[in-house]
Specification:
Length: 180
């Protein structure tokens, strides 16, 4: 677990228990934890894996069947070390998750950060952590993304040295072209 204790912008935010998680995240800077999920997760806090799953499958509206994919493939491959995952928590609340498939032709399967937590550099941090974990055994690393997402965050992806290569052979959404 990686921890970062950040200064709180507003001390009253900590005392006000009536704030929604979204408003709490927006109004405070506190403790950020990044949990690595891999074969070492066995025997550790099962809540971390459960929260990781919940955060990933929250995209069910965008990726039909993501829950089945996670339950049938991802969970067992994380435990076997074939995939690596991360769960990001801010003030104890899950705000992001990532999954990557390890191997010679590695793939970043998903990187998700809640809109409310995007200004903290967590997406960039997740990409760096994934790259550090894949560098030993991967000859290539790729990811696919909906074209609209690429266009929206193109500057970010290019700053991370990713390039647009064209349409992916696999289409995960019927409403948006998946690119590689």
């Amino acid at each position: 677990t990686i921890q970062c204790h950040c200064p709180v912008k507003d001390q009253n935010t900590m005392r006000n228990k009536s704030l929604s998680p979204q408003r709490y995240l927006k109004n405070s800077k506190m403790k950020i934890e990044i949990h690595k999920i891999d074969k070492s997760i066995k025997g550790k806090d099962p809540l971390i894996l459960q929260q990781h799953r919940t955060d990933v499958v929250a995209a069910e509206d965008l990726y039909h069947g993501i829950e089945i994919w996670y339950d049938r493939k991802v969970k067992s491959e994380l435990v076997r070390g074939e995939r690596i995952g991360y769960l990001v928590q801010k003030n104890g609340i899950p705000v992001g998750a990532a999954i990557a498939k390890q191997g010679r032709r590695s793939k970043i399967c998903t990187v998700r950060i809640l809109e409310e937590a995007m200004s903290f550099g967590l997406g960039r941090t997740l990409f760096y952590l994934i790259a550090m974990n894949l560098r030993g055994g991967a000859s290539t690393v790729h990811f696919t993304a909906p074209e609209s997402l690429w266009r929206k965050y193109e500057e970010f992806f290019k700053s991370m040295k990713f390039n647009f290569h064209g349409k992916s052979n696999t289409q995960y959404r019927s409403s948006d072209t998946e690119i590689i």
